[in-house]
């Protein structure tokens, strides 16, 4: 077994997607599931699709390659602007991409023409996060350029929030994005099929009472995987927070002095003397380190405290009996710990496929099919 090892309960990923998709579908919005935090793991991506995601979104072409190699044929959108050097492969592997640069869109168009395809373009607009996006006043000119290029089609617009700034979108930013969709249509002509209103940080807005306007899609990763709102860190009602866990193997247990430095004591009578400060506590060393995950974003198992970590060792302490060498301890990860663990060289993801026979794929609202016997 590798250490550390990520375990995922695919059923919880599927149910989280289903819960979000149902809540957003009734509001006229789809969920595009973002698989980048788990490096495009095909089983997890499939669980998202099975849960009702309208398609997948990925930031890196390497993850898209992995999804396609595993046989996933669903719509995949590249949500990070394509690299100019990868334009031809983007057109071959992705149905659509988010874009901000006309030189890159022109390369996509040329590649698509060569392959006798049409690649869909969603233009990213800057709405306050100050990461990617064209300024709202420049949107219609860029949209017009896309319209004029054969090989690409203008599919929609989108915005991103709360990534660089950490600030959740408010109703007025969402209204502004909606208005931009209407303005772009009025100026450039085509109906915009997709108006994508951001990531997991937009869910509180989506569940709120303000009008949805033209926004009809959200790109959701963290909330599906970890069940939380990324801005507040709070659990989203009805979602599982424990679809993922990180296991690491114990490689040493010992009682060690709490401080390695001897300490000076004042006796009151004689001269001060040096004694070793030995307050017994069990130190546990695990085969996991800074190279494997964001150690400071892990929750320690109950009864353990973090002492420190180096590239390959994690030291924790406990007042309890020592765990056995060779046994494993379980850690809960936040988003940053999960994405680093999934990308680490030893970060194997092991899936639990827990489908009780009575619950098979049965969804009470799904149409039932009759089988010929
Ligand atoms: C990562 C990313 C998302 C998904 O963000 P979550 O917070 O995981 O939901 C959506 N859109 C873009 C552009 C992203 O880069």
From TrEMBL:
Matching Pfam families: Ala_racemase_N
Swiss-Prot/TrEMBL cofactor(s): pyridoxal 5'-phosphate
Protein name in UniProt: Putative amino acid racemase
Keyword field: Isomerase, Pyridoxal phosphate
GO molecular function, one term: alanine racemase activity
Region (Disordered): 354-373
Residue stretches of biased makeup (Basic and acidic residues): 356-366
Biological source species: Litoreibacter ponti
SUPFAM superfamilies documented for this protein: PLP-binding barrel
Claim: Manganese is one of the keywords in the record: no
Cellular component GO terms, alphabetical: cytosol
Domain named Alanine racemase N-terminal: residues: 8-224
